[in-house]
Amino acid sequence: MKSLLLFRKDLRAGDHKGLKHLIDNQRESILLYVEDPQDRLLKSRGYAIRRGLLSRLNRRLGQKIHFERGDTYTILDQYVKDFGVGEIVLQRQYEPWEVALQEKLKSLNVRVVLVEDYLLLPPEGGMKSDGTLYLVFKAFYENWLKKITPEGPCTYDSSQLKTLWVKDAPVEEAPNPLDYPAIDDFFMNGVASYATRGDDFTLEGTSRVSALLNNGGISPRKLWYLGRISDAFIRQAAFREYYIHWMYYYPEVLQKNFKRVDYPWSSSREDFLKWQRAETGYDLVDAAMTQLNEEGWIHGRLRMVAASFLIKDLHIDWRWGEAYFYEKLNDADTALNVGNWQWMAGTGALHQPYFRVMSPLAQKEKYDPDGTYCSRFLKAVHEPMVDHKISRQLFIENFKIAQEQSKKNEA
Ligand SMILES: Cc1cc2nc3c(=O)[nH]c(=O)nc-3n(C[C@H](O)[C@H](O)[C@H](O)COP(=O)(O)OP(=O)(O)OC[C@H]3O[C@@H](n4cnc5c(N)ncnc54)[C@H](O)[C@@H]3O)c2cc1C
Question: What would be the CATH architecture of the domain defined by 269-410?
C-alpha cells in the first residue's frame, strides 16, 4: 500500500512514531508538509522556527519531503487521487480546527492512521471516573504521573524508509535559529538545579526547549527522559499537557472566558500600543516587552509580569495580549498561550484569584534589585502610564462587580 505521511508538529527524524509505522510496515511513502493559509502560526514569529526545523528534517530525510501551499484537506484529496495513496499517517493534534480536519479526513475513503505522539498522556487519560477533566492541577498532575508510561524512544532503522518522490515540490532551505547548545547544556548541567534556579529570570536557569518542543523537534518521551531527575521540571512539563487537555475538552476557551465574567475592558488602543512598544514607564514591564519584541522569548515570570500589567493595570482584555504574544513569541502555542493568559486574568480553570495582582515594582525589587536585567533591555525611561496601586484597586473592584453581575444573570 502507498502511504502518505503528513508532517505536523513532529519535525524530527528520530523517535517518530509515524516514521516507525511506515518502516515497520514497509510502506512506500510520500512525505508531505502543507503550509495552510489558515494556520495561525503563519503570522507568528514561531513560523520561522517551524520552517527551520522542517528544513533540517528535510535534509535528514534526503530532501524527500514535498512542500505544498493551500488548504490541507484539498491538497490531501489531490494527492490521494493523483498518486493512488491508500493510507494517510499523521500526528494527532488537539486544536478544534485540527480535530475537525482529522474528522474530515475520514471522507477521503483511505486508511487514516492518527499517531499519538505529541503528549505523554492523551486527553482521554486526563479524565476522572465521572467522565470530566481534572481541572485542579494538583489532581491532574497526580493522575498524570500515575498514568504516563514513559517508554524509551521509539527506534527504527531510517535507512529502511522507502520514500517516493512524486512531484517537483521541494522544501526550500530556511535557517534554523534555535540555540541547540544552550538546550543541550541545560539538560547536561542545568536541569538538576531547575527547582532552585528556574523561577528567577536573571539566572537563565530554564531549558529554552519550548519552541523545539512545540514543533516536535524533540519528542515528549525524550523530554521526560532528559528532565526526569528534576520533579520541578517534570511538573512544569505537565502544565503543557494540562492546558492542551483543557483546550481539547473546552475549545470555546480559545475565545471565551472559562469563568463567566463580563469585565468592562478598556478599549484604549493607545494604552495597548504603549504596552507593546515598552513605554509603560514600569522598568520591568518595559524591559520584558523589549526582550519579547527583539528576541521572541522571555522567561515565564516576565510573561506573567507583562500579562498582569496589561490586564490588571491597563484593564485591557486578555485576548488582545494573547494575540500579541502569539505573534511575537517564537514558542507561540495556542493552548499554552490562552491557558496562561486566562490564568493571569483570573478567568481560567486553574486557581488564580482575580485579586492577586503582580506588582511590577515588587517583582523588580525581588528578582532584579540591582537592575542588571532591566538595564540590558531598557531603551528609554518613560513616565508611568498609571499608578499601580490605584489601577490595581480599580481592577479588583470592577472584577468583583462583574463577577456578581454574571452570577445574577446566570441565576
Ligand atoms: C502569559 C503567558 C503566555 C505564555 N505563552 C506560551 C506560549 O505561547 N507557548 C509556550 O510554549 N509557553 C507559553 N507560556 C508558558 C511558559 O512561560 C513557557 O513555556 C516557558 O517560559 C518556556 O521557556 P522554557 O522552555 O525555558 O521553560 P522551562 O521552564 O524550561 O519549562 C519546560 C517546559 O515546560 C512547559 N511549561 C513551563 N511553564 C509552563 C506554563 N506556565 N504553562 C504551560 N507549560 C509550561 C513548557 O513546555 C516548557 O518548555 C506562557 C506563559 C505565560 C505566563
Answer: Orthogonal Bundle (1.10)
